[in-house]
Design goal:
This protein has about 180 residues and is α/β, with parallel strands linked by helices. The chain is about 40% helix and about 15% strand. The strands form two sheets. A five-stranded parallel sheet has the order 3-2-4-1-5, with helices on both faces. The chain has a two-stranded parallel ribbon with strand order 6-7.
């Protein structure tokens, strides 16, 4: 049986990748990439010629069984997102769940994460924190979701699109 590797990729600076991640990407039989165009820039930087295949939220259900079959047939596969760690507000959960269910070996490599640098640079308490991922887009759902945190004392980390930050901050000010 093959092995699945969850490989974090740099967030912004292509040099922010581990040596181990480079080795794994060069040695696997296939790289599943959220956007192959973005991943190919990284691979080109490190002269890696491994075949890539698109794997994202719009095709992950359709491709799941075929990927598992490849792993069962002794293929080693790396999963990368456009930046940061697979499965953290990015595709990968379905594949990992199925790999666990089938007893296929997998490994999650350490590496780039936007969460910890943002937290440590924020000036907010870092002892206890909550990561919530992306907030709802609809205003009514956003207000409802945020109201759940009115009395939270831990630092809360949300992901937000740069295009919606101002709007979201205004809603946060009103709700919290």
């Amino acid at each position: 049986m093959g092995k699945l590797y969850l490989v974090p990729t740099p967030i912004g600076n292509l040099k922010d990748i581990t040596l181990r991640a480079i080795d794994v990407l060069a040695q696997v039989d296939l790289i599943l990439a959220e956007d192959t165009r973005i991943t190919k820039k990284l691979l080109k930087q490190y002269k890696i010629n491994t075949k890539t295949k698109s794997y994202h939220i719009y095709n992950e259900h359709k491709l799941l069984n075929g990927i598992v079959d490849l792993l069962i047939s002794d293929k080693n596969i790396a999963l990368v997102s456009d930046s940061g760690s697979p499965c953290i507000s990015d595709p990968g959960f379905l594949l990992v769940r199925e790999v666990i269910r089938k007893g296929i070996d997998f490994e999650s490599l350490p590496g780039a994460s936007s969460i910890i640098p943002a937290l440590t640079q924020s000036g907010f308490p870092t002892t206890n924190f909550i990561f919530e991922g992306f907030l709802p887009k609809k205003s009514s759902e956003l207000k409802s979701s945020l109201s759940n945190y009115n009395y939270e004392t831990k630092t809360i980390i949300f992901f937000e699109s740069p295009h919606r930050v101002k709007k979201t901050l205004k809603v946060m000010r009103d709700v919290l």
